[in-house]
Amino acid sequence: MSRPDWLPTTHVEVGLHIFETTRYTPHLYPEQDRATVRIDGTDVHVTVFSHHGDLVRLRNVLADVIAQLEAAHGQTSATSTTAA
Q1: pTM for this one?
Q2: End-to-end CA distance of the chain, in Å?
Q3: Residue 50 has what pLDDT?
Q4: Of 6, 7, 41, 83, which residue is most buried, by most CB within 10 angstroms?
């Protein structure tokens, strides 16, 4: 879904570190095919609003990043083992 023309054009950038204590609270709106996920940190709260297709896209990006990190970690481990 593209941004409706009537939405304001204000831009905000938010940075949030994710830790083991970070809490996630999803809320489903199945009749609208969307959901929100509130991300609660110690001093910050961010809510992600999205439709199903965009959540799938976000999930795929995160899965790709995880695979890249795991591959990089494997390369680092193999290099460290070889160098030793």
Answers
A1: 0.71
A2: 52
A3: 94
A4: 41
